[in-house]
Amino acid sequence: MWRASFFLKSLKYAVFLGAYFPASYSLAAEKLDLVHSVYLGGIYLGRISTQIDQSDTTYKINSHAETSDTLSWLISWIAEGRSYGVIRNKILSPEQHIHESAWKKKKRGAVINYSTAGLVSYEQFGKKTTNSGKYTPILPASLHNSFDPMSVILQATMKLSDGKPCLGEYPVFDGRRRYNVVLSKGKERMFSPSAYSVFSGKAKGCKIDVVKKGGFKRNPEYELNEGEDLILWVGSPTKGARIVPVRMEVDTDLGAMELHLERYSEGTINLTSKNAQ
Question: Looking at the domain assignment, is residue 277 inside a domain?
Fold first, then answer.
């Protein structure tokens, strides 16, 4: 059971860093489809699909994550995420975020709504995180003027697209947990051609730290990436393509967890890695 939970925790981390780190683009751009594959200790764990539709004034993001069919005897997890909102002077204002996941056919999730004044209301369904003995408390006032995970990372990548460094701190609420995402500049890295990825060449590093505020387990079974810098590398997979997440590596007790960009589709650009699942 511990091993199955660890696999699931690993994929959830990858979902946050991969699917929630989309590209930004302007009104004239095509819709963007990305697929990232996740491996843990050399084992194919699952995939994350992201679709992004953004103009100069609005945005919409859809994501879908699922575990590998070959691991269904051990774990079976599916997650869906949807965010949309408006953009004013390159500043995002989310209007609604919905997240739903199913673990062993048991569904849970949350719906978050945002007023034009930044006030946040939400409703959880499935398993609740309101047990104060098991979860740390969330201050209601801390939710206002926060972002959902998808919107906050899109906001950060808009800065990258403008040539600015990966830098900033953002308040995030995902319907269950309240935390701050702290972004800082990481080291650049060269990636050789790989059958697992459509990207090769130099990628920029973005260091990610998560500061817990509330809604987390008081006694977690384990923590991923403890004491290690968590860096997501971003780059353009080909000429004319956008800056997107291309690689992530995290050491765990079960081996290295790796995230690869295996598919990129936008307009006439369609890239697929040799080992695409």
Answer: no
Query: CA 175, CA 111: separation in Å to the nearest integer?
Result: 7
- List C-alpha distances in Å: 70 to 65, 66, 81, 121, 272: 15, 12, 24, 39, 21
Read off the pTM.
0.86
**Among residues 99, 107, 83, 73, which one has the least CA distance to residue 22?**
83
Alpha-carbon span 255 to 273, nearest angstrom: 23
**Cα 229 to Cα 9: distance, rounded to the nearest angstrom:** 18
DSSP track, 84-119: EEEEETTEEEEEEEEEEEEETTEEEEEEEEE-TT--
Residue 211, CA distances (Å) to 83, 103, 217 in order: 22, 26, 14
CA dihedral angle for residue 260, residue 94, residue 32, residue 90, rounded to 10 degrees: -100
Instruction: Determine phi and psi for 157, rounding to 5 degrees.
Output: -70, -25
Rounded Cα–Cα distance for residues 57 and 255 (Å): 43
DSSP structure class, residue 29: P
207 domain residue, yes or no: yes
The count of structural domains within the chain is: 1
Contact 205, 183 (CB under 8 A): no
Query: For residues 90 and 79, is the Cβ–Cβ distance under 8 A?
Result: no
- Write the pLDDT tens digit of every residue in 188-246: 999 999 999 999 999 999 888 889 999 998 887 655 545 567 888 988 999 989 888 89
Q: Please state, in angstroms and rounded to a whole number, the distance separating the CA atoms of residues 65 and 178.
A: 22
Residues forming beta bridges with residue 268, ordered by sequence position: none
Q: Tell me if 87 is assigned to some domain.
A: yes
